Amino acid sequence: MSATETFLREPAIQAVGWALLHFVWQGALVGLLGALALRALRHSGPDVRYVVGTITLAVMATLPVVSGVQGWRVARVASEPAQTLGSAPSSVVSGVTASAPADPWLQSAAPECVEGAAACSAGAAADRRFERWLPVVVLGWMFGVAVLALRLVGGWAHVRRMKGSGTRANAVLEATVERLRRRLHITRAVTLLQSSAVSVPTVMGWLKPTVLLPVGALTGLTPLQIEAILAHELAHVRRHDYLVNLLQTLVETLLFYHPAVWWISRRIRIEREHCCDDLAVSLCGDPVMYARALADLEELRGDRVQFVMAATGGSLLARIRRLLAAPPPHAGRGPAWLAAGAALVLVTVIVVGPLGRQSLAAVRPETAATEKAQTLRGFIGQLIHILQNLDKFLGRAEQSAPPAPPRTPAPPAAPAPPAASGVDVALAPPIETARAIQESSGTVSWSRDGEKLVVEYRGAFTLNETDTDIVSMAPGARVRISDGRWLRSRAIEFTPDGSGHITRRYFAGGGERPFEPEGREWLAQVLPTFARQSGMFAKDRVARLLKNGGVDAVLKEISQIEGSYGKRLYFTQLLRQAPIDAATSQRILDQAGRGIESDYELSTLLIDAADRLLVDDATRKAYFDAARTIESDYEMRRALTAALRRGPVPPALIADLLDASQAIDSDYEAATLLLEVVKADPIEGGTRAPFFEALEGIDSSYEKGRVLQALLRRDAVSAETLLGAVEAAGTIESGHESAQVLIAAARAHAISGPTRDAYIRAAERLGSHDRDRSLAVLARR
Q: Could you tell me which residues come within 8 angstroms of residue 579 by beta carbon, excluding any fewer than 6 positions away?
């Protein structure tokens, strides 16, 4: 026997072979459970699905290790029969010889062979047939691992070459990365390089992360788009995705032969990109702009090393479609405890259950038969229990969702109703009445306190006056209303015939039942909830409420709507259909500021209704108070800017707006708003002090200089305003930006008196180069 054959017949190598064979069904089972969990969490946030996918892959990586260790223990016990079984390694029962099986899963049942020799001999024979092929299996696996390991090493070397070919990026991009790094609370230093070796923005490294930008690839993008792309890359750094992806690659290398491993790994990468997309959108505030930036990068895509993180990772088309059509980032997110609990059950059932019992069989073989039977019964019972209670788990998850989720901007191009207070709504393009859409389709899902309602519709349909029944449907339309349960569900299906007659079919308890009276009663109970929460019939319902109860009835109805999208639709219809005085405007603004949780929906309402809501001092204060409740800097800036676009703006409104602008944390958004103020107001009198106070709140030297230079470009600037601009230039940390403002002031205006003294003081604090060029311009004037 050659040395290779001897090596391949070692107990440890035999255990590895059996572990590889058993992982075929183990991986399939774990992959199936992971797929079911991801399917159940399809309406949750990508971060939840990412955690579930990562844990599923971790369980897959653990299973062969556990099987191999247990197989090695079994082989060791079989090689030392005197210490374990107290008999020879084979038993003769009724004239049939039954050798000790090498398979650890069959070895645990060895005591059963004493009572069932025929069954034992058949199992051992099958075991020996497989055992003859173990050397081939192990050799094939080692060859595949070696090939993929070469690929991994080649990728690592390619990454090193790409880092070595990079050159330092310009100061503006470095400043942008530094600002985003602080906003993302990244404590490690991030290096920004430009390289011709990459075709898309790329992150590499974990302890010392580096962002590689393709040379010239970002020239066609706006500064905002570049900032969004960089935010995506820094999101990878914050989440330690480079390290996680490297571990993924190792698992793929070791378990390359199982399709489930590649499938779940691909899902992890898809959800990873979605998580970073959401984080980038939360920073830049504009999903449409970010989606356009991704689309512009599509033509730059090329082959990449597998574990290199790039801004266009995953399916770019699917990511763009999700950004433009999906609910806002993190909307409808399931609680993290559901993912963690599912993962814990998965690990307990798969690892601690049938495999953990193997150690008992190896140490105490006399109880192996009992342990095996109990293990199989418990394993099957736990699986049945999980499947039967999955609906309950999901219901509890929705019930325990926080009543006021974090506000996030929704896509302006395709607003979708966000989830709030346990509401999960996903609609087709927004509609105010079903009569306006003839080919609409979608799904509305709503839940609260254990109640759940799912409405799937295709085509136009209308409700009766009391919202208790569907009275008309377009040809070919279909509506299905159900309570959303997997087991013991109730549902009603509506289909029209050619004459317009509507057929109603009622299903309950797993079968069809007569619609009258049980189905009719249940429909009258749940359909008003759908009509209210979906917002689909806002126009007709607001008209009816105004006719019967006036504005008070509409505001009361809005207070019962749980989704921000639906509330905004009803507020919009109220403003369109009812005469609004100052008192009513103030009531609307107060209720909208308190009740609309979505930043996008609230800012959209304020922008659309600014002309009608800004009536007097009281409504102006209510408007800005509502705008202050917006947490997204981008959406707050949009709402405040809308107040400037309604014709001549009184100084009192400018002062209030500048005071509200101090709630904006983003230097870029604050500077953009101040630029709009500069266009709309001369910054004199009562607006001068609030303007420079708001400017002082901007930390970025570049953004502060941008505002001051725009102010100095105005034709008419008073001496007081000019003095304030020069003094503000002296507070800019960047010497270059400070000098730029001083030079702009000296070139455009006469510098004399107190302004000249402030100019010289500001120039003297600069470095020699910036000081000399600032004073030279002043001297020439």
A: none
Q: 470 phi and psi, to 5 degrees?
A: -90, 125
Q: What is the dihedral of CA 708, 710, 712, 716, to 10 degrees?
A: -130
Q: With b meaning 16 or more CB within 10 Å and e meaning fewer, what string describes 316-341?
A: beebbebbbebbbbbbbbbbeebbee
Helix (H, G, I), strand (E, B) or coil at 479: strand
Helix (H) or strand (E) holding 490: strand 490-496
Over residues 476-499, the pLDDT tens digits come to: 899 999 886 666 688 999 999 878
User: Which residue matches tokens 């990468």?
Assistant: 269
Greater model confidence, 447 or 779 = 779
Tell me the C-alpha distance between 141 and 209, whole Å.
34
Distance, CA of 412 to CA of 568 (rounded, Å): 14
From the number of C-beta atoms within 10 Å of its C-beta (0-12, 13-18, 19+), residue 160 rates as exposed
Tokens of 551: 């504005």
| Both tokens assigned to 315 | 């399916």
CB atoms within 10 A of CB 264: 26
- Conformation bin of residue 467: beta by default, left when phi > 0, alpha when psi is -120 to 50: left
Give pLDDT, residue 274: 86
Would you state the structure tokens that stand for residue 444, as one six-digit string?
A: 């509305």
Closest to 159 (Cα-Cα) out of 61, 53, 249, 265 = 249
Closest by Cα among 223, 237, 321, 314 to 279:
237
pLDDT in tens, 728-760: 999 999 999 999 999 999 999 999 999 999 999
* Cis previous bond, 517, omega within 30: yes
Measured between its terminal Cα atoms, the distance across the chain in Å is 99
- Residue reference for tokens 């000399």: 772
Instruction: Look at residue 627 and tell me whether its pLDDT is greater than 70.
Output: yes
- Give the span between the Cα atoms of 775 and 781, in whole angstroms: 10
Please tell me the number of Cα atoms within 13 Å of 734 on its side-chain side.
Answer: 15
Phi, psi of 194 (to 5 degrees): -110, 140
Q: Which is it for strands 90-93 and 191-195: parallel, antiparallel or unpaired?
A: unpaired
- Contact yes or no for 576/431 (Cβ under 8 A): no
- As a 3-state breakdown, the chain gives helix, strand, coil percent values, each rounded to 5, of 65, 10, 30
Identify the H or E element spanning 279.
helix 259-284
Q: How far apart are CA 778 and CA 221, in angstroms?
A: 37
Alpha-carbon distance values, 744 to 202, 716, 738 (Å): 38, 14, 10
- The size of the chain, in residues, is 781
Give dist(CA 261, CA 422) in Å, integer.
Answer: 34
487 beta partners: none
- How far apart CA 549 and CA 104 sit, in angstroms, is 76
Say which residues have a Cβ less than 8 Å from residue 93's Cβ, sequence separation at least 6. 113, 114, 117
CA pair distance 297, 316, nearest whole angstrom: 9
Query: For the chain, how many helices (H) and strands (E)?
Result: 32, 16
Listed residue (133, 106, 129) closest to 9, CA to CA? 133
Residue closest to 168 by CA, chosen among 213, 132, 126: 213
Residue in 669, 618, 614 with CA at minimum distance from that of residue 645: 614
Neighbours of 428 (CB within 10 A): 18
Sort strands 441-448 and 309-310 into parallel, antiparallel or unpaired: unpaired
Which pTM does this prediction carry? 0.48
